[in-house]
C-alpha cells in the first residue's frame, strides 16, 4: 500500500486577530454547481496501485485513458489523493481506491479486491454534488445536508474527521445549516450556505480554514486547553471577517491548502491559505490565516478556479485560461523558459480555444474545450497526463488515445497521481447507411 503523504507546515510567525462577523440577512438564490444533466463514460489514467483507477487488481498503471466499466450512467467525477468518486444520474455515489482511512465510505474489509472496483455509498437522499480530498470525501444532498467520510491529515499525521477519529461511513458533518455548495482541499472542506456564509473545517496549518491564528492552527494548540481547540478545527465554523465588511458570498473553490470565496454580486475574491508561490494571488509569500482580498484575482470574472499544491489555474466567463504560481514540471503551461508567475498570466497556447472546464492535480493542469478536446500539462511521471508517456508537458498538449477518439470530453478531475475523465460518446450521422 502506498505511503500517505505528509503536509508541509506553515512558517508565518505573526498571530492574526480574529473578528466575529455579523452579517445582515441574505438569501442566496443561484449557485454555480457542476452540471449533472449530461451522462458520460468514465476514463482513467495514471497510477492505480491502490485501486484508484477502478480497472481491477491487475491494472496498476495506465499512461493513456482507459474506460472504466460501470453499471450506472455517470454525471460527475472527482479524483481524490488516492481514490475516485463518481456521481450517478440517479444521485448515488460510487467510490473506488484506497480505503485505509475510510475515504470510500463503505465496507471493503474481507472482500477480495473490493477497493479496485466501484461500490455504492449508502446515503439518505439524492446527491447533487461531490468533492474529494487526499483522504476524505463529501456529498451535498438535494435537501442541503452534507455528509462526509474519511479523515483529515496534518503535518503530524492523521487528525480524524471527528474527535472519535476516522469516519468510515457517511456522517452528517454540518447540522441545522442549509448548504448550497461544497469544495474540498487536500485536508479541508469548505461549505457555502443558503445565506451566503462560508464555513470551513479540517487542517488549518496553512491558513486554509480562514478562521484561526497561526498559533491556534495546529493540534498542539490543545496543550493546556484539553480538546477544545482541536474540536473547533474539526467542527465546521464560519470564516473570520471584519463585521464592518458585511460580506456575503455566492461561490467558493478550494485549493490543496487554500480557500477562494467570491463576494455575492461582485467580482471580488477573498482568499486564505498557503501562498508560498503566490498561488492564492497575494504578494507576501506567507500563509494567510484570515480571508484577504486578492486584487489580482478580483480583476477577472471567474467561472472556475482550480488549484494544485503550488499553482492555480483559472477559467473566466469568456472561456479564457489563466495561471499563477510555481512553474516546475510545466504545471503553469506558460512554456519552457517561463518563470514562476507572481501575477495571473494568460495561457497563450489556449488563446484560440473556447475552454469550458479546467482542473488541477497536485502538479498537473487540464483544460476542456467546447469541441470536447482535452488538453493537459505539468507532471507526467505516473502517466497522469494520459499522453502515453511519462514526460512532463510544459505547454497545453492535446490528449489523444484510442478510447478518446470517438468521444467528447466535458469534465476532468486530477488527484495526486491519477486523472479521471468524463466524456460523451459521439453518435455517427451515418447510422442508417445508403439507400
UniProtKB/TrEMBL annotation:
Record's protein name:
RCC1-like domain-containing protein
Q: Its Gene Ontology molecular function terms?
A: guanyl-nucleotide exchange factor activity
- Tell me the SUPFAM superfamilies matching this sequence: RCC1/BLIP-II (SSF50985)
Ranges for domain RCC1-like come to 42-421
Positions of the RCC repeats?
40-90, 91-143, 144-195, 267-318, 319-371, 372-425
Look up the domain of life of the source. Answer: Eukaryota
Specify the species. Answer: Psylliodes chrysocephalus
Coiled-coil ranges (or none): none
